Structure formats: C-alpha cells, structure tokens
Amino acid sequence: MYFLLLFLGFVTRLFLVPIPGFKADIAFWKGWGLAVADRGIIWLINNTNYNYPPGFAYILDFIGKTYKLFADPYNIDQYWMDNNLLYLFLFKILIILSDIGIVFLIIKISKKLKMEWGWLLASIFFLNPAVLFDGVIWGQVDQFGLFLFLWAIYFFIDEKPKLASIIFTIAWLMKWQNILFIPIFYLFIYKKYSFSDLIKSFAVSLGTFAIIIFPFWFYREMASLLNLFTVNSNWFPWYSLNAFNGWWIASGLNGMKISDKTLVLGIINAKQFGLLLFSLFYFIASLNIFLAKKEESLKQFVLSSALVILSFFHLLTQSHERYLFHLLGFVIIFYFFKIEKKLTHTIGLLSIVSLGIFLNMYVSMAFNYPDQVYWPFSTETTRSLTLYISMFQIVTFIYIFVRYFSSFIRKNYLWVVAASVVFMGFLITKNYSYFLGKPISLTKITPVGIQQDYLKPMINMTVESARGVKYWNRLSNNYYFYNQGIGAHANSEISYGLGKRFSKLITDFGIDTEAGDQNKAVFIIQGDGRELYRSKPKGKYDLPESISVSIYGIDKLSLIVQKTGESNNGLHADWLNPVLIR
Amino acid sequence: MDTKNKEEDFVVEAGKKNLITINIVILVIFLLIIGGVYYWVSKTSKGQQVFPAGINYLLPKGEEAKKPVLLYDFAKLSESSDWVTYKGKAYSYSFQHPKALAPLSFPNDKSDAVTFKVNELPPEQSLLLTVEIVSSRDKNLVGKPEEFAKNYWKFFSGLSGLNKIEPITNEKGLKGYKAAYLVKGSKTVTSDNYFFQVEGNDDILLHIGDIFPTEGKAVLNRLVNSLEYLK
Fold it and tell me: Which of A103, A283, A487, B92 is 20 to 30 A from A85 in CA distance terms?
C-alpha cells in the first residue's frame, strides 16, 4: 500500500518535471551552473551575482557539466528557453532524489525510535502538495537543506555527534537557512554529550568546512568567501519578500514596497525590531535545550529547531515565502519524538502548516508567473486574500508556540522574564534620547535608499574613506572639523523613512576640505518628494552653512546633492552634524 | 521424492523468471510513457528565453558580445517609488515609468511612439507604445478593437497567426486586449501586445509592446496599469 503511494508520488513528480516553474530561479541555476562549470567556483563568486552557499555551487557545477554531455549550453536559443526539458530534468531529478532521501530518513528515524506509522507519515510527506510545489514545480532546493538536517538528526539518534556535525556543516554550506541552527546545534551537543565532544564536533565541522571551501583558501580568495557570507544581509531590503506574515500585513499587503529601514518604534527600524524579536524567541529556543534533561535534549532540540524556523519566517523582515519549508519535516518527526503524542493531531497540525505554506507559495507564483498556475482572482483581490493567509499563518505560529512552549515558559518564567527585560531594556536604551525629546543624530538612522554617482555615503567620514583604510579622513570644511555627519559625493540622494516622527532637521553642509576646487554643487532637502530647501551653489572654499528646516509630518526625508555644472569631479559634499528634533 | 523437488524448483525458477520479465515489461512501458510525455511536451510547448537578472554569465569569453545584456536591475526598478509620468506629444495619453529609463521619441512621428532602451535592439525596432491608426491598417476594422488585435499579425510578414488573445482592463479603467502571435518558421511566439481602446475615438488604439526582458515583466505591468488617455 505505502509502496504504491510512494510510487504514485514518484510518478507525479516525473510528470511535473517539464513545468518551467519559477523561471527566474531556474535561469539563475542555469547561469551560475554554466559559470561554475566553465570557470570554476571562485570566478563564479567574483564575477556574478551568485548569493547561495558555496556547497550549492558544486551541485550546479555537476548539473552544468552533465548538461554539456548531452547538449550545447552555448546555444542560447535552446539552453535559456524556459521549457528546456533536459535542464529541467537534470535539475529536478536532484530535487526528487532529495525528497526520496527525506522519505527514507523519516522511515529510518521512526524505526530507530521504535515508533509506528513511519511509512504513513513518509507517504504523506511525499504526496504533500506543499512539498511538490516547492520542489518539482517551483524548482527550489529547500529539500536539500531539510534532507541534510534530518540526516544530522538521524546521526544524533544513533549517538554519532561527529557524523551529525559533518552532515550539518554540509547542510548549511548547501542552504543558508541551516545557518540559523548553528548555535542551538552545538548547544545541544554540549548539553547531550560533553564539552570534549563539543570540541571534537567543532573540529570535524571545521575540517568539513575547510574541505568544502578548499578552492578559496588554496587560491587565497577567502575575502570572496567572506563577501559571499555577508552579501545576503541586505539583498532585498524590504518588509517581506512575499512571506505572508506580520510584516506583510504591516506593509499594507505589499511587503516588497516598504523598506525595512523604515522607523517603526522610536528610532528603531523594522529590520532591527525584527532582529530583536527574533533574538528573544531564539533565546527561548536555546533555553529549552539548555534546561532540558540530558535524555530529553534531542527531543527539545527538534522542538527548538521548529521554533527557530517559525520565528525566522514570522519575526524577521526580508523573509521569503518558502522559509517555513523545514517545518514540513519537523512536524512529522514531532510524532516520533513524542512532542505530539497523537497521530491524528500530528497529521492535523501538518495539514494546517502545509496549507499555509502551499497557499503562500502558490499566490507568490501567481504574483510573479501567473502563466504557471491557475489563479482566477485579480491582483487586487489576491492582495486581499494574502491578508487572510497571513493571519492564518500567524495564528498557526501562535498555536504551535502556546501548545508546545507554554508549560516550559510557566516552569521557567523567571528566565523568560529576564530575557524580556533585556529585550525591553534594549528598546528603551536605543530610544532613550528619542523618548526624552533630545536631538537625534541623523547618522544613527539607516537610510531607506541611497543613490550616489561615486563611491557610497560614509558615516562620520569623508566619502573618499570608502576606498579603504588608507583613505580614511575626518569630515571637515575649510579645515573646520566635525565629529558627526555624512560624507557624500555629487550627485547623491540619501533617503530616510522617518514615519512622520520629527518636526525639524538642523544641519550644516558644505564641500569637504579634501574636495577638488573646480566644481560646485547645490544641497537640496526634500520631504515626501517636495522641495523643502535648496542652497546656493557651494564650492570648496565656501564656508559651511547652517540651516533648520521644518520636516513636520514628513514620512520620507531626502538629502540631495547635485552638481551645478557639467562635471561632478571632486565634489565631496558633506552633511555636517545633521540632527533631528521631535 | 527427488523428482518432485526438482519439479517444484523448476516451477519456482520459472515463476521468478516470469516475475522478472513482467517487471522489465512494466518498467519499459513506464519509461515509454514518461519518455512519450516528455517528447510530446518538448514538441508542443512554446517556450520563451529567460535570462538571469543582474550581473551574470551566459557564454564563454569571446562570444559574450552576442549575449543579451540586462541593462537595468528591473526588480529594483519595478519596486522603486521613483516613477515619473510621460505624456504623449500628439495624443493625450500618459503613463508612468521609472525615472531611470529615459523616454525616446521620434520627431514628427504620426504614431506618437515612445520607447526605452531596455534591450539590445535599436530603439526604432523595439517600440514600447505606438498609437495605432486603425483605418491606416484596415478601414474595415475601425471600431472593432478585438478584430484588430486578432488580425494584427496579418500586417507583418514575419508572423503566421494568432497565439492567444484575452480582454483586459488596466487599473485606470482602460479596456482592451492582450494578444501574442506566432512567429513564422519557428516554434516561438511574440511577447505580449496590448491594445487599449480610446473612448470617443474608434480609429485609434494605444498599442503597447513588451520590449522588456523577462526580468522586466513587473516594470511593464506597472507601466501598463498606469496608462491613461485624457479627453
């Protein structure tokens, strides 16, 4: 019976392979795969917009090279077609293998823990529409990450922490989301085993890491690797990347239109607030492992991992629609670890979680590639529907948190209260000056948008400082030095999402001492697109000017520097000691 | 006794052989079905080229000049708040577009065409918006926008037929049709063409062609939805 279901799932997948899916993602796989197959991993990272982990590049390399055996990837009329069946097959067959691997691990974990219904739950996973949609239809690789993570858990059940560490290291070098689990992963090893095992696990992890990133240290390109690790932090700086969560609702159901640098609480922006909330929940997840009995710690690690992935999706900005995928595997193993004791409850919870994930991905696909799905609603109706999907997912999050963590919090409320106090303390400390109505330096607020013709604006330094340590220089005008300010270069526009919080901007401005003396620029202040102030043309030897501009009721404040003549050469322009008054 | 055992062994052996044969036959049939489906899909589906956005690699060095280059980060443009209004010179249409894209129009152009340099084609061969004067194409199609859109391919020797057509209404309430056409001698179809009716003037249609690469679809959608015609 179960074999038949699994076979059905396999055949369904094979029939779904020709669907082009999320075309932009597949185009990236093709482009990056061809680059790494032709030029190697370091060239890929230094010369393209590759922003996935290094491990995934090897998979793309394998597919790229295999493709070359059967067809010509340089035939642009064939390779780049969205219905390139050979490429779709080569890529999606790996996704299918990952799905099969997850099925295999679900069954193995159930057997290892002497629990029934492994085959049933594995079959449900394999036929789950959310799993099918994310992988073989969309063309995403979340299953790679889940497969390796579950494998690591299997090794833990088998009491092999070192092997688990090797697999886990591969997991986060294959799919970034797994980085989230690093702290609780090693915390669990320390809790379940010993400090010595923790060190050994670190050592094998480091060894695995060194092998996977071999080309980087061998060719002395570690800086490229470091860049790859950090490049994603502001790749899409929006409230929500079609993740239907609280940020999506807060954005007015248009998460990719509101910058997450917009202020939401005093001078704390959405991204910072999300990070703080996430940290609070991460602390609870860590505490759940740290305070667990040794024999219960693996169970609690699984539960905490689920909380981490839920918090990641719901609390952080810049979350993608697919980021709950791991939960589809976690909820199933809840049953084997007796986190959820009743099979019917497990299947019920899995159905609820799957429904939310499926709808979120389906609607995202309808937004981006309406030709890939059947969706009978207009864009505006769909936006309204996303409100209900968001609320449904938020309620699911609250339900899971309350159901599985309420007794833990009751027992350990002092810890949680202490963490909440730290959380609140941070909010208050950060907003101390704001709450007291004191002036706030604009340099403390992250812009929502920056456009500049040369280098990038620098905080409390001249623009030339952006070239590196050797060029660091203090802000000044005619050798009058300022401690605070923004070093810009014409033409530039720096925008802030102030959320109508302030009434006045007071600032000095002028051309920096390090500037050339050939050209002049005007300084413009705009509020919500309306010009509030425009200076006379300023050159290197003009003294700084001081102004106070009313910004009452202004949401978006823009500081603009424009060249007045033909050239902007050497126009290093400074906003000096800019402060906001409530 | 021995003979009986040998007979039983023979039967079991024969049964195993039959089972293997049946399995092989099932496997072959299964592979033929899947292969057949793939063959059918590859022969019938009309795909389009999709290139990765941003800085990317499409061909080895030396041949890179041939590759299509993405001139803008369309994802950012589509979400940008920095959009401005373009107004027609001869006709009173207007639409919004990203400030970063400079409108290119043509002196004394009766069709009041405008475009952007967003692909590798010369702008005059890749027009975004033209005002179609229906009577200059076919007098019988005046006041019949759907018929015009359905038969538009007939005005071009490189097209062989209509692929699909559907009625649309943009966010400003302009009604019209979205159509794509078959390219003669290949399996491909053209990008989408939009034909919007102008209230009170049956002889003109606002024709928008999708000149954007696939990554620019969101920019086009936003632009199309901002199209207006003032009386």
Answer: A103
